[in-house]
């Protein structure tokens, strides 16, 4: 069970504010990308986020361009998961590929505020907030394996090493 402090955002959080476009073509390491995470939406985020924190947002999180750096910078910043009412499908896949857990949750999400603490059990599909349990479809074993291995590339390397 993962436990983290909440960073709260609304609907339609675009990849351009998750990872600003002006850095897209600069050769940055993931750690350098993390220094710019959400800087156009929340200038305090990159300097204050802690390992294990959780982003909670409204609908259509990660809309916009297919910028893979959006998922990379959040993971490198220490974000343990993004919980949202819905995700852009490209961001959702980029997040899984980069080892960043993403959870679609509609029930109870509007009660979660910035600074609150949530607990997440990915395998059982449960978010716990202030004693209330909210359920989401448990992540499939294959997805959990990718996340546990740190992303798709490390997962494939691990699997090929077994062959």
Rough shape?
globular
CATH structural fold name: Aconitase, domain 4
Q: What do the pLDDT scores average to?
A: 94
Structural class by SSE content: alpha/beta
Please report the number of helical segments. 7
Number of domains: 1
- Radius of gyration over C-alpha positions, nearest whole angstrom: 15 Å
Number of extended strands = 7
> What would CATH call the homologous superfamily?
Aconitase, domain 4
Walk across the major sheet and give the strand order: 4-3-2-1-5-6-7
Largest sheet: 7 strands, mixed
Note the beta-strand portion: 15-25%
Our measurement of the CA-to-CA distance between the termini, rounded to an integer number of angstroms, reads 31 Å
Q: Quick one: CATH class?
A: Alpha Beta
Notes on the protein architecture:
The structure is a single chain. This protein has about 160 residues and is an alpha/beta fold. Helices cover about 30% and strands about 20% of the residues. It has helices at about 15-20, 30-35, 45-50, 70-75, 90-95, 140-150, 150-160, and strands at about 1-10, 55, 80-85, 100-105, 115-120, 125-130, 130-135.
SSE layout:
Elements: E1 2-8, H1 15-18, H2 30-34, H3 45-48, E2 54-57, H4 69-76, E3 81-84, H5 89-97, E4 102-104, E5 117-121, E6 126-129, E7 132-135, H6 141-148, H7 152-162
Parallel strand pairs: 1-2, 2-3, 3-4
Antiparallel strand pairs: 1-5, 5-6, 6-7
């Amino acid at each position: 069970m993962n436990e983290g402090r909440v960073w709260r955002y609304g609907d339609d959080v675009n990849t351009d504010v998750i990872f600003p476009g002006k850095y897209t073509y600069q050769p940055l390491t993931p750690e350098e990308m993390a220094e710019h995470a959400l800087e156009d939406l929340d200038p305090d985020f990159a300097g204050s986020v802690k390992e294990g924190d959780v982003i909670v947002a409204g609908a259509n999180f990660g809309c916009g361009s297919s910028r893979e750096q959006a998922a990379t910078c959040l993971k490198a910043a220490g974000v343990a998961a993004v919980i949202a009412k819905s995700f852009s499908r490209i961001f959702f896949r980029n997040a899984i590929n980069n080892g960043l857990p993403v959870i679609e949750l509609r029930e109870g999400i509007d009660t979660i505020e910035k600074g609150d603490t949530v607990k997440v059990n990915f395998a059982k599909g449960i978010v716990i907030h202030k004693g209330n349990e909210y359920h989401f479809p448990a992540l499939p074993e294959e997805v959990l394996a990718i996340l546990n291995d740190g992303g798709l590339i490390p997962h494939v390397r691990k699997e090929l090493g077994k062959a």
